[in-house]
Amino acid sequence: MVLVLNGKDIPKILDMKETIDIVEEAFLELSNGTVEMPLRQIILEPKKNGWIAVMSSYIKNMKALATKVVTVYPNNPKHNLPTTIASIILNDPDTGKPLAIINGGYLTAIRTGAISGVATKYLAKKNACTAGIFGAGVQARTQLEAIVNVRKINEAYVYDMFPESSKKFAEEMSKKLKIPITQVNDPIKCVKGCDIIATATTSKTPLFDGQIIEPGTHINAVGSHMATTRELDTKTVMTSKVVVDSKEAAIKEYGEFIIPISEGIDPTQNIYCELSDIVSKRMNARINDEEITLFKSGGLAIQDTAVAYLAYQNALKLEIGTQIDL
Length: 326
Fold this sequence. Notes:
This protein is of the alpha/beta class. Helices cover 33% and strands 25% of the residues. The chain folds into two domains: 2-108 and 302-324, ornithine cyclodeaminase, domain 1; 119-299, 3-Layer(aba) Sandwich (Rossmann fold), CATH 3.40.50.
């Protein structure tokens, strides 16, 4: 029998704190060399501005083996569909048999929030209390939720190119997180005065001028994941202590590092380390409250595998989902 978990099941079986913990555990395994993870395979559909990827990994000590197929189509909201659609197959690493088929939409969002939660835990100032969020979709929501889980945030600001979306975000998330959230119409207000900035958009070009970033700021950039797009400008990358989820992926896939090369600048030289090096304490995290720190992530398969494993285990305990005979 195979357990099927639909999109409505996932929020019932995953909470942010537990998700942050298991993603951190996965990155510790990555640092310790107990992970098998090929670089994701990507197909582009330029006519529809579509992005399709296959992401697999095996986390050995966790005994978690999974593959995700994920698509990102920025124009989907026009068709009343989510921008990101994903499906995950979890396998038994001892036999290879499928254990679960999981709707990966919300799972992708919460695991993306969780990785930023791990980065924020290590890289943001201990007394960080204000957050600026770019984007108002489900990814942006989990970004703020994760930040609130690891720092005592007193207030937050949200900016989106669609004001009605940011207004709804502010209303709903302020109730959920019990902090004041202000909708702003000027992106500068999500940067100046904010200790932590999160970018979770489909923008192809930088969201703000890196010159306005204040000392001590921490940035989580998770929206752009293609070589031809970026949410952050060259100034931001070059003036920050840069931590990435994967150096290999950053050099080959992330526009924040690839686009500046055409400007005659190679920001890959400014990559300090990978997040796994920070989690394992092989490298220092923030060393003072004046550093500008940047975590850039395009998403790794181990995040999906670890969280799919957690979802499966919790679903069995709570008797949630549908068992089917394939």
